[in-house]
Amino acid sequence: MTDSRHETSFRLGTRQVQRLGYGAMQLAGRGVFGPPKNRAAAVAVLREAVASGVNHIDTSDFYGPHITNQIIREALHPYPDDLVIVTKVSARRGPDGSWIPAMSPAELTQAVHDNLRNLGLDVLEVVNLRSMHNVHHPAEGPLDEQVTALAELQHQGLIRHIGLSNVTRTQIAAGRRICEIVCVQNHYNLAHRADDALVDDLARDGVAYVPFFPLGGFTPLQSSTLSDVAARLEVTPMQVALAWLLHRSPNILLIPGTSSLVHLRENLAARGLTLTPDLLAELDGIAVAH
Ligand SMILES: NC(=O)c1ccc[n+]([C@@H]2O[C@H](COP(=O)([O-])OP(=O)(O)OC[C@H]3O[C@@H](n4cnc5c(N)ncnc54)[C@H](OP(=O)(O)O)[C@@H]3O)[C@@H](O)[C@H]2O)c1
Q: What are 184's strand-pairing partners?
């Protein structure tokens, strides 16, 4: 394992971003659907994140839908020059909050325009194509038509860079034959390490790996080893989980999601946490136990 804790930033497309960013999904209502209970609190979280050095925010227009992007715009527009907002396309929401694949070129084009309008941008810095072949995990299936559609929007100047999400190695390789893929956003954390080899391969190629559910997502990470290490360091388990990811590989960019200022501060403090090789080895055991 590479000790990458000293690398505080990494290249995302043509921009250098801080490795500890912010994921905006928690800013919508329950089930990522509808408005949040407290919109002012959501605005405050975004403003404090940016004031604290975060310059990479992950979002999508299907969070809410539309609402999360509108809150980002309300909180941060006009955007600081160094802020990189990354969005994702390929789903829409049913009236009951369900996640419905929307992967046709026409739907992807519509989604890009929705993101531009709701974020108040003329061009999207990075758009991830989120595969919906299986909603829950990467599943083989063609994405050429979808990547080609995004590449066309890139040629039109609406998108600067393209990434892939919820994808397999085969899909990444196929995507790279069509256009440059600047990041991969897949499910990965201390306990869920199916992408271990992929993380290392992308690091060698200078491609960012952005784990979603870095804290376990809808089922937050729970492990006695994690709690024990955190207690010894007098920090929280979530801080250890984020620090572990920062140590894991220099191309890992973090986007922990929270609707709470207290949790935001706690998560950002993980930037200063050093894990010794002994502790890293102990934490590596968590995945083996799963
Ligand atoms: N590409 C994809 O398919 C995909 C899928 C899912 C997510 N994402 C992106 O990835 C980002 C991160 O994922 P996520 O937000 O689902 O999951 P996550 O970051 O793993 O965890 C978020 C959960 O942990 C809680 N939390 C955050 N900080 C905490 C802390 N310090 N202590 C205790 N609990 C804490 C949050 O609740 P509180 O609000 O109470 O803090 C929330 O319930 C999202 O915001 C989204 O941008 C992408």
A: 164, 209
- Report the distance separating Cα 261 and Cα 1, nearest Å: 32
- Residue written as token pair 């063609």: 142
Residue 7: its pLDDT value, please? 84
**pTM of structure:** 0.97
**What is the rounded CA–CA span in Å between residue 164 and residue 168?**
9
23 ligand 1 Cβ < 6 A: yes
| Cis-peptide, bond into residue 65, ω within 30° of zero | yes
The answer to whether the CB of 67 falls within 8 A of the CB of 35 is yes
d(CA 61, CA 119): 9
Q: Tell me how many helices (H) and strands (E) the chain has.
A: 10, 11
Pocket test for ligand 1, best of 258, 259, 271 (most atoms within 8 A of CB): 258
Length of the chain: 290
Q: Supply the residue whose CA is at minimum distance from atom 23 of ligand 1.
A: 217
Report pLDDT digits (tens) over 13-61.
Answer: 999 999 999 999 999 999 999 999 999 999 999 999 999 999 999 999 9
The phi and psi torsions of 163 (rounded to 5 degrees) equal: -130, 175
Q: Is 249 exposed, middle or buried (0-12, 13-18, 19+ CB in 10 A)?
A: buried
